[in-house]
Design goal:
The chain has 13 helices and three strands, in the order H-H-H-H-H-E-E-E-H-H-H-H-H-H-H-H. The chain is mainly alpha-helical. The protein folds into two domains: about 35 residues, no CATH class; about 190 residues, hpI Integrase, Chain A. The protein is elongated and about 70 Å long.
C-alpha cells in the first residue's frame, strides 16, 4: 500500500467503526487504534517476472507474436526489441522517431536526461506499420477501444501478457531484465553497453563518462543482434505475421 494511501485508509476504517457504534452494532469505546502504517503487513518487493532462458524467451515471443491486436503486439515487440520501459514505448511520439537515422529519442528519462535508443530493422518496421492506425496523431501507438488516453495505455501491455498465459512468467518491464540476462549470457554483450541501453543511472567518474558517450554506435549493432536473436528464438518472423494479417 503506498504511504500516501495509508492515512486515508485508516481514516476510512475509523469512520466505518464510528458508524457501527452509532448504529449499535459495536460497543461504545471499542474504536481501535488503527495504526495501519505499523500494523499492516509490509509489501513484499520482488523482481518483475522475466524470461531468462532460451526456452522461456521462445515461449514469450511465440505468445506475443500470436496476439490478435496488431497495436498491442507491435508495442510489446518494440518493448522486447529495444528493452525500454513500457510506459515510454506506449507513449512514443512520432516526432521523436528518426526513421532515416534509425533512432528514437526519449526526451526525459528517470535520470533526467534524454536517451538515444537505436532501432533495429524489426523495430522500425513495427513502428512504420502503425501509420495506418495513428495517422497524423501525435503518438505512434493509438489507444485501444474504450481507452481515454491519447496513446496506448501501458497497462494494456501487462493485461495482454497475462491473457496470453504469461502471468507470473513475463511482464512488459521484465523484458528489460530479459535483455540484461540473456544478451549477457548468450551473446556476450558488455554489461556497460547493456546498462547504457537500459538508461540506468551510473555512479562515479568513469561511469559518468560511459553515460555521456552512450555507446550509440555499438548499441546499434547490439540491438540488431538482439532483435535477430529474439526472432530466431520464435517460430515466426514479424514480417510473416504482418503478411498473414494483411
Amino acid at each position: 500500500m503506498p504511504p500516501s494511501i495509508v492515512p486515508k485508509a485508516a481514516g476510512a476504517a475509523q469512520s466505518i467503526l464510528r458508524v457501527a457504534i452509532t448504529a449499535g452494532a459495536r460497543d461504545e469505546g471499542r474504536l481501535l487504534d488503527l495504526n495501519l502504517r505499523d500494523n499492516l503487513p509490509k509489501r513484499q518487493k520482488g523482481h518483475y517476472s522475466a524470461a531468462t532462458t532460451p526456452d522461456e524467451v521462445k515461449a514469450v515471443m511465440d505468445a506475443v507474436k500470436a496476439m490478435s491486436s496488431e497495436v498491442t503486439r507491435a508495442a510489446l515487440l518494440v518493448c522486447a526489441y529495444t528493452a525500454q520501459r513500457p510506459g515510454d514505448v506506449a507513449a512514443m511520439r512520432w516526432r521523436d522517431v528518426d526513421t532515416k537515422g534509425t533512432e528514437w529519442i526519449i526526451r526525459k528519462t528517470k535520470t533526467g536526461q534524454s536517451h538515444v535508443v537505436p532501432l533495429s530493422r524489426q523495430s522500425l518496421a513495427l513502428i512504420e506499420s502503425m501509420t495506418r492506425y495513428s495517422g497524423g496523431a501525435e503518438y505512434v501507438f493509438p489507444p485501444l477501444a474504450r481507452q481515454k488516453s491519447q496513446h496506448l495505455h501501458r497497462d494494456s501491455l501487462s493485461k495482454a501478457l497475462r491473457e496470453a498465459g504469461l502471468r507470473g512468467k513475463q511482464t512488459p518491464h521484465g523484458l528489460r531484465a530479459t535483455l540484461r540476462t540473456v544478451a549477457r549470457e548468450r551473446l556476450g554483450i558488455s554489461a556497460d553497453v547493456l546498462e547504457a541501453q537500459l538508461a540506468h543511472a551510473k555512479r562515479g567518474e568513469v561511469a559518468a563518462a560511459y553515460d555521456r558517450t552512450g555507446f550509440v554506435e555499438e548499441r546499434q549493432r547490439v540491438m540488431q543482434a538482439w532483435a535477430d536473436y529474439l526472432d530466431g528464438a520464435s517460430r515466426d518472423s514479424v514480417m510473416s505475421i504482418r503478411r498473414t494479417n494483411a
